[in-house]
Amino acid sequence: MKFDKKELLRAVKYTLFAISAGVIQIVSSLALKAILGTFMDESRTMVFINEIAVSSFIAETVGLALSVIWNFTFNRKFTFKAANNVPVAMLLAFLFYVPFYPFQTWYIAAVEGKLADIGFWGFVIAQGTVMIINFVLEFMWQQFVVFRGKVDTNALARKEAAQAAASANDNADRDIAASDYVEGTDEGAK
Predict the structure, then answer these.
(1) Nearest of 125, 67, 133 to residue 100 by alpha carbon
(2) Which of 44, 53, 149, 175 lies deepest, with the highest CB count within 10 Å?
(3) Which segments of the chain does DSSP mark as H helices, in order?
């Protein structure tokens, strides 16, 4: 198996952007949950997949939306460097959440319900664990569906490729000049 630095760097970038999106999601979800908790009755529930506190549903929906927009925007530009049609790519990114959002909603409510005795921390644990699941699945979705065939096609990728080619040409010219010098030196020594 060949080690590919470029793909390792892509995975590191994705991880860093996912962490930042996770921070946005968790902070906005927790802040909104706390704010809503001050004036909403926590016993007020609704049914979406299962029974869930209205404040939790609103908080996780807003937090997820903010993190998806952030993650998509930065990964498209800097991680996958994709020049594909943005509305189509965003639609494909959205399609990931058609099954995942109901799963996430069910999962958070189920975990939060099981950990009800620890209160607010049950929500924190539920959010954190579902974000790990999301991290893995969304990376695969973006790599193999959203940006498939479009990776390294935007202006930034073209600029980096041109710089790498110029650097390779400069190195090749230096190698030729060095070999000419060495050959000339060898010729003079004979």
Answers:
(1) 133
(2) 53
(3) 5-39, 54-74, 86-114, 120-141, 155-189
Query: Are residue 39 and residue 89 in the same domain, yes or no?
Result: yes
Task: Summarize the confidence of residues 78-94 as an average pLDDT.
Answer: 88
Q: Which whole number is the average pLDDT over 104-112?
A: 86
> What residues have CB less than 8 Å from 33, skipping those under 6 apart?
55, 56, 59, 120, 123
- 47-65 per-position pLDDT tens digit: 888 887 888 889 988 998 9
Confidence of residue 95 (pLDDT cuts 50, 70, 90): very high
**Tokens read off for 15:** 């991880």
Structure tokens at 167: 């650097």
Q: Are 83 and 172 contained in the same domain?
A: no
What residues contact residue 156 under an 8 Å CB cut-off, 6+ apart? Answer: 77, 78, 81
117 shares its domain with 84:
yes
| pLDDT at position 39 over 80 | yes
User: Dihedral angle at the C-alpha atoms of 63, 67, 70, 73, nearest 10 degrees?
Assistant: -130
Which structural domain, as residue segments, surrounds residue 31?
5-152
Residue 175 sits in the same domain as residue 85: no
| Spatial distance between the Cα atoms of 19 and 3, rounded to a whole number of angstroms | 24
Q: Does residue 19 register a pLDDT over 90?
A: yes
Is there a single domain that holds both residue 92 and residue 165? no
Residues 141 and 164 grouped into a single domain: no
